[in-house]
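Q: Start with the shorter request: fold the first protein.
A: Done. Sequence, then structure:
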Amino acid sequence: MDQAGDPPGCWTGLAVLATALLFGMTTWFSATAVVPQLEAVWAITPAQAAWLTIAVQLGFVAGALGSAILNVADRVPPRRLMLYGATGAAATNALLLVAQDVSVAIALRGLTGMFLAAVYPPAMKAMSTWFRVRRGTALGVMVGALTLGSATPHLVNGLGGLQWQLVIVVTSLVTLAGGLLAEFAGRDGPFPFPRGRFDPRMAWRVFSDRGVRLASLGYFGHMWELYAMWAWFSVFLGDTLSLQGISAAGRWAAIGTFAVIGIGAVGCWLGGVLGDRLGRARATILAMGISGTCAVSIGFLQTAPIPVVVAVGLVWGFWVVADSAQFSTAVTELGRQDYVGTALTLQLAIGFILTIPTIWIIPLIAESTGWRFAFAVLALGPLAGIISMRQLRCRHAG
């Protein structure tokens, strides 16, 4: 152990698993990166383009629910499960190359999301075997890697010039490499979780612990805000730039959105540090308070100087995801140890279900009332999350 109580090799283990997660989840973002080209190839509507993203999330939810019911994440070694999931995701993503129309493509995106449910939760569980003292920081780095991957399609769109077939091939290969890296270069840490037995009832009983339930409710509030912000910030920024007469607004909006989402990778790290030092509840309450304030205020800034809009966006992007890993960390610490994988998987599944209504409703509000009130509805999530985490803080003095 080092002076902080971390075992030898833990930071190497973190680097390997974080890289494997970043690589393994690359196919989540592959179609998003080339939507403009796919719109021309298949003559798809904006609604169909949105379904290329939504299908991945629905597939992830279906895969995660199935995994939770079957206790897969507690019965199969997590790094091996990552390999299985990454292999399936890479294959279904590559099949986009021979898809004849958008309906087939949407179905393939759903299958890709289903396989990715066997990559993300096991990665969090595998990483938790390496850390007890600074587990929040470690899982923060993991989610930070995923956040950086989420931002990358916007940079690709902003820079332009890549053929969609090349993007699909490369992302499939990178996802497969992530699974291979996890299984053959990664190692389990010195704090393994007991292996669970098959018990479908545990898919719901994991929430019988009040601490797990409160941490999960906090996560659900966080997810109500996060993905809708990521999905629609580029449109908001593009509209704002156009409103103020900025040329090439779409290109600059894509690059700006890359920065706004990408800075969240640093936020995840800081959120982990704060979670380890202050407690999960205090850290998440701070993050949700700041992000919720940004959600309420940013829509009223469309006529403000562009640097002000971008600055508020960067603050929002930093804090909106800073708390994400801390909810999962709390589950690994508070939940029944032989079913941690099931609890994490179910938490993620329900959280991703909650992203769908907000992704759907934001453009409707924006079209009806303008951006002043569209993002404000997202603040309801952080508000509910703060209430849950305050209760958890009182219960566990966290």
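Q: Next, the second protein, separately.
A: Sequence, then structure:
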Amino acid sequence: MAMKVKEVSELASISVRTLHHYDEIGLLVPDEITPAGYRMYSDANLERLQQILFFKELGFSLKEIKNILDDPAFDAEEALHMHKLILLEKRQRLDQMIATIDKTVLHLRGEIEMTPREQFQGFDFSHNPYEHEARQRWGDHAVNEAHQKLKDPPADKQKELSDQMNDIFRRLSAISHTAPESAEAQAEIKQWYMVLNQLGSYSPEAFKVLGQMYVDDERFTRNIDQFGEGLAQFMCNAMAVFADQNQ
């Protein structure tokens, strides 16, 4: 059954503006345009959109996604299998990072001691057991760009990134009395988004979810609010605004 652009937007949790952009660049062209000018999306369009969002989540650019999907040799079922394998590997790494966060909280409280190696468990993005298959299917250039976003920074960059993050916390704390949607707040939260994407790969939606964790998990709240009371909530709100504006 054909769906209107607004229905697809709500179904896939992406903006109408994004769907219009995909149409304009030929990435997702609706199968039908009504005489009144309404875009109508078929089941095949929805299947392609699902693939687009999977590839986007893995860090591929829109241009690379279009090239992959338009390749006559593209196999949708095979791609879904590969998506699953990569996401399972990513979930395993994230589980390790969450465990490292929990241990670090205990370390900061003085309840346990952590070695330097333990402090960075889960931050090794240098190996993906499915990368070779991905390169064979989608090409070196596409995988290299996606892979670069998941690379752990070299040791000599870690302190620099830590200092950047602390500076952003302080600057955000200083303006936490302003509206989260203000230009000043959004400029600073954009810097936070950019720094986080040096450590991992965050889509705007994932960035928004992370912001919600800052207030839902008291451990995050406690650590962030060390820079200023209410900072975690302010960042959560500002990150949500940023994500909604950059879908």
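Q: Describe the second briefly.
A: Residues 90 and 206 are 14 Å apart (CA to CA). The longest strand covers residues 39-41.
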